[in-house]
Amino acid sequence: MSAELISILVLVVVFVIATTRSINMGALAFAAAFGVGELVADLDADGIFAGFPGDLFVVLVGVTYLFAIARANGTTDWLVHAAIRLVRGRIVLIPWVMFAITGALTAIGAVSPAAVAIVAPIALSFAARYGISPLLMGALVVHGAQAGGFSPISIYGSIVNGVVERENLPGNELVLFFASLVVNLIIASVVFVLFGGLKLKGRDLATEARAEGKDGAAKDGDGALAADSAQLSPARIATLTALAALVVAVLVFDLDAGLSSITLAVVLSTFWPDASRRAVSEVAWPTVLLICGVLTYVGVLEEMGTIDYAGNAVGDIGVPLLAAVLLCYIAAIISAFASSVGIMGALIPLAVPFLAQGEIGAVGMIAALAVSATVVDVSPFSTNGALVLAAAPDVDRERFFRQLMVYGGIVVAVVPAAVWLALVVPGFG
Question: Could you tell me which residues are beta bridge partners of residue 204?
Answer without folding.
Answer: 90
